[in-house]
Amino acid sequence: MTDTAVAVANGAGSTGNSGPVWTIVLAGGGGTRFGGPKQFFDLGGEPLLAHPVAAARPASDGIVVVVPAALIGHWSPPDGVRMVAGGATRAESVRAGLAAVPADAGVIVVTDAAHPLATPALYQRVIDEVRAGADAAVPGLPLTEVVKEIRSTVLGSPPDDTPRLVTGASLPRETHRLVQTPHAFRADLLRSVHAEAREAVEDSAMVAAAGGLVVVVPGEPANIHVTTPDELAMARLLLTHVRSEGEPNEFGTGRIHAVR
Known about the structure:
Elements: H1 3-11, E1 21-26, E2 42-43, E3 46-47, H2 50-56, E4 62-67, E5 81-85, H3 90-99, E6 107-112, H4 120-131, E7 136-142, E8 150-151, E9 164-165, E10 177-179, E11 183-186, H5 187-195, H6 203-209, E12 214-218, H7 229-245, E13 257-259
Parallel strand pairs: 1-4, 1-6, 4-5, 7-12
Antiparallel strand pairs: 2-3, 6-11, 7-10, 7-11, 8-9, 12-13
GO molecular function: 2-C-methyl-D-erythritol 4-phosphate cytidylyltransferase activity
Keywords: Nucleotidyltransferase, Transferase
Protein name: 4-diphosphocytidyl-2C-methyl-D-erythritol synthase
């Protein structure tokens, strides 16, 4: 039995880890698609990465921010927030963050600078699910558009870059979600899956592959993923609206479903 399998088995039926909560904010990208390091672009008078740090603080006992080594001096974090250099891949950056998290942490939250508008309530929501016994918790939004597969070429046709629909059924909306960050994890299990040096787009996939229980909670529509300048402009509009209207920016509570 692997260390990860032991960690999953030891956590079965638990009531959640009671140790401190630590949050890792991933801000290690180079901004290739964006045209620059987007984590340092302005959003409401602060760089993008400052927003998840502020949202995570009420629910966290400590925070680690992971940035490219060459950009560590570009932002001065608040008192008590640790900043470390990331790696060449997302998984390596998570491991750099894990190395800075104390060994007694019970719950570890992983988020990213590209989701700057998540509210403190969303952080608390995923943490509460892990405290209640889940191995991990992620926020998800129902699909509101049809999702189809496309390809740039059609068999038997001259190759070009024009996207074309592939015939077949659309993804069923009832059984799919748009998954956001932050994600919360049992600290021991997250460390175990990373100790096996796995690579994945995000950590909940690693936990699920190891047999862990990953709970999905309601996400927040305003918690958009900023990957382009247009999405940054949208985030600025959303933030301006929330501030001007004094809205709480809360979008539901409770559990949607759990998958193993």
